[in-house]
Amino acid sequence: MRVNLTVNGEKMSADDVWEGESLLYALRERLGLPGAKNACEQGECGSCTVYLDDVPVCACLVAVGQAEGRSVVTVEGLAEGETLDEVQQAFVECGAVQCGFCTPGLIVQAHSLIASSPGIPEDAEIREALAGNLCRCTGYEKILDAVRLAAARKAAS
Amino acid sequence: MDFLRPATWAEALALKAERPEATPIQGGTDVMVEINLDKGRPAALLDLNPVAELRDWSVGDDGRLRVGAGVSYTRLIEELGDRLPGLAQASRTVGSPQIRNRGTVAGNLGAASPAGDSHPPLLATGAVVEAASVRGVRMIPIGEFYTGVKRNALEPDELIRAVRVPPADGPQYFSKIGTRNAMVIAVCSFSLALHPSRRAVGTGIGSAAPTPRRAPEAEEFLAGELDWDGRAPVSEDTARRFGELVARAAAPIDDVRGTRDYRVHALAVMARRTLGWAWRDYGRAI
């Protein structure tokens, strides 16, 4: 089947899509966007987190046909040209990236948390928001530092 | 595989009648796992995301909250947490924020896993499942809905339109055992609802029998023991006996998540604890 959707503001379509295919597979293998990562394929790890109509979801659990006519934003869509998004910048500065596999999902999920928080979220809120994103390098402390830094900068701006 | 995209509820029912073997997909948090891991290959997917009628909740003529089959856990928590506290507590323990953004109570009912988090509070509050087909609408009391492991009372041409839950008329609690706070399939779970207006107690047991189930003997015992008017503290003996009766109502097995003995023990503990929390709230609510 054919699927039409908007990804990172750009209208895209894919042909000969298998009906049981996930949005994640289509993004990575058909639309040339390998940012969202494929790991558990069962919603456990969060490394495929993308926005679907402004709501963060596991792209592996969305059938691509369900994204027909809808808007998807992946980690590739957060930076403005060469200028990193605040969350990406904070991850770089805080050393929140080790192997990097979980990073795209964590950045999208943290981006959503910060966008929906009026001030700087409490640590408990950050931990809850990121509870579905696993980092197997166990670099959580630096990740929390990065989220606090990005939130503080947003609150100050 | 076919991908069916009804634009309206009427179209969805017509498609389900025409293709009863089609698997409905809403949040995809169960269905896509099966497909991704090649555990099952549906003949067709019936995508309910485009059906606008399912996206909202309302207050029905009977005063019950009619929660549309497309209302996510996240929205239920944010918008109905005050009126459906037991179900909202259970919803908060589902998966992760990303999963709660997609998953729904109706999806939990459709999957009918004995470990589903929605089931215990739905049982404790006496919810009703609104099923529909081209033949008409059928109201299925929650106690008749679960028919076996991952089996429910829906006919092949039926879809879940909504779940109807009475707003809380007293304290409600949900408790769940797992290895961490997120992304946990329940080892076992328990929900308690107090109904002071009719001096009744509701219970729901999860992940400790082939289906979610109530503990009727425990409900009856506790309703008779509680000092509804004076709100005197519950005695240790009463709490312990309630826990025993809850545990006795279960029929757990040993499996990868826990043993039979542990589940029986944990259920008694959760029953006592939720009773303690609920009765404390009731005592304060004078």
Automatic annotation (TrEMBL), chain A:
Keyword flag Metal-binding: yes
Residue span(s) of domain 2Fe-2S ferredoxin-type: 1-78
Gene Ontology molecular functions: 2 iron, 2 sulfur cluster binding; metal ion binding; oxidoreductase activity
InterPro entries the UniProt entry points to: 2Fe-2S-bd (IPR002888), 2Fe-2S-bd_dom_sf (IPR036884), 2Fe-2S_ferredoxin-like_sf (IPR036010), 2Fe-2S_ferredoxin-type (IPR001041), 2Fe2S_fd_BS (IPR006058), Beta-grasp_dom_sf (IPR012675), Diverse_Oxidoreductases (IPR051452)
This protein's UniProt keywords: 2Fe-2S, Iron, Iron-sulfur, Metal-binding, Oxidoreductase
Classification via Pfam families: Fer2, Fer2_2
Entry-linked SUPFAM superfamilies: 2Fe-2S ferredoxin-like, CO dehydrogenase ISP C-domain like
The keyword Iron is annotated on this UniProt entry: yes
Entry-linked PROSITE patterns: 2FE2S_FER_1 (PS00197), 2FE2S_FER_2 (PS51085)
PANTHER family assigned to the protein according to its UniProt record, in alphabetical order: OXIDOREDUCTASE WITH IRON-SULFUR SUBUNIT, XANTHINE DEHYDROGENASE IRON-SULFUR-BINDING SUBUNIT XDHC-RELATED
Name the record gives this protein: Carbon-monoxide dehydrogenase small subunit
Organism from which the protein derives: Acrocarpospora phusangensis
Gene encoding the protein: coxS_1
From TrEMBL, chain B:
Keyword vocabulary terms for this entry: FAD, Flavoprotein, Oxidoreductase
FAD-binding PCMH-type domain mapped to chain residues: 1-170
Pfam families named in the record: CO_deh_flav_C, FAD_binding_5
Keyword Oxidoreductase: yes
Domain of life: Bacteria
Region of interest (Disordered), residue spans: 91-117
Keyword Flavoprotein in record: yes
Compositional bias of kind Polar residues: 91-101
GO molecular function: FAD binding; oxidoreductase activity
PANTHER family: XANTHINE DEHYDROGENASE SUBUNIT C-RELATED
Protein name: Carbon-monoxide dehydrogenase medium subunit
